[in-house]
Amino acid sequence: MIKEHFNQRKKERCQSGPFLNIVSHNKRVLIWVLIFLTLFTTGSRYDVLISLISSSICVLVMALFEQLIRKILIPKFLSRDHHQLHYYLTSFLIIYVLVWGTVSFERLVFTKFMQSNLLNLTIKEDLTNVHRVIPFLRMGVLLIGTFSISTISFLLSRTKAAYKISDNLRNEKLDMELRYLKAQVNPHFLFNALNNIYSLAYTNDANAPEAILKLSEMLRYVTDECQSDKISISKEVKYIESYIDFQKMRVESLHNVIFDHKILNPDFKVTPMIFQPLVENAFKHSRIENNKDGYVHFSLMQNEKELIFICENTRATCFLNKNSERSGIGIDNVKKRLELAYGANYLFSIDQNDKYYRTTIKILIS
Fold it and tell me: What is the pTM assigned to this prediction?
């Protein structure tokens, strides 16, 4: 996998052109060349030779100072939070020494050139009479600029790395929470399904073998398909239909069970089994097998803007006025999984009275 990624990146670099490759691999060299050309151009109007010498010395000192910062000062001081003051004090002391040393070295070089008559008389007079503060100011500004850019670059890269680590940790935490919540759904479903099969077997119902086969198919979906973070909505619809058929095998009188679905894009991806706890709760709390007027209605609609799932069922008398009616992993599990998977792009609502209980999930499609 890593080798394939490396080969792909290498291929992309080759396709980008030789010039871009050269630029990409020699950014630092090009930056120093541009700085040298800028210094040389601004000073060449006075004397080309003096500008060439001065620019070369300045760029060489700046490059050495930059390497000193990156290789020694930053790792030794700035990377340690309690040594930051030492970093700034040491850096400015080095800048002070370099400014005096560089200006003195420039004057020594220029003196040698004048003694060898390589500089004309006008330049000689300028060198001896020019204000002595200007070379110090120029070198000081250049070195302080080098220090500032190097320091800011390191701080930005460290901040970016810290944000990246924080994001990775947060994503890993969210992934672990999602996996934990998903794992809760599987055994909960299995316990309910086994109880249903036990009821069929206990009453010697002829549907028991078919129920076991149906359960096998559903478990294959749960253990294989649902391991992905997202799954096509068509597979989720098929699973809900299988679960409804499974319930109908258990109780033949389940006639008021309706599942309407209108899907614009069957390949639309959704979090697996996000609706299953609500479907199970609808059958469990409606007690439809003991209520001739009871019903369970499911509606799933998906268009270009949103996905809407509505689950409505009658309320059994034995569950009325009980705070524990929808306790357990069902509702809380769905809410937490929706929050982790969709953030602010979802709406979960509950509407209820003494006769019915309705839950609605609306997922916005970005």
Answer: 0.51
- Answer whether 350's CB lies under 8 Å from 358's CB: yes
> What values do phi and psi take at 275, rounded to 5?
-95, -15
pLDDT tens string 199-237: 778 778 777 788 788 778 777 777 777 677 788 999 999
Tokens of residue 135, six digits:
């070379």
Q: Where are the domains of the chain?
A: 205-364
Nearest to 27 by CA among 153, 119, 200: 153
Q: Which residue has the tokens 């030492």?
A: 86
Each residue of 252-265: pLDDT tens digit?
A: 666 788 999 999 99
* CATH homologous superfamily for the domain 205-364: Histidine kinase-like ATPase, C-terminal domain (3.30.565.10)
Angle subtended by helix axes 233-250 and 208-223, to nearest 10 = 150
Q: Is 144 exposed, middle or buried (0-12, 13-18, 19+ CB in 10 A)?
A: middle
Alpha helix (H) residue ranges in 116-232:
121-129, 133-202, 208-223
Point out which residues pair with 363 in neighbouring strands: 307, 346
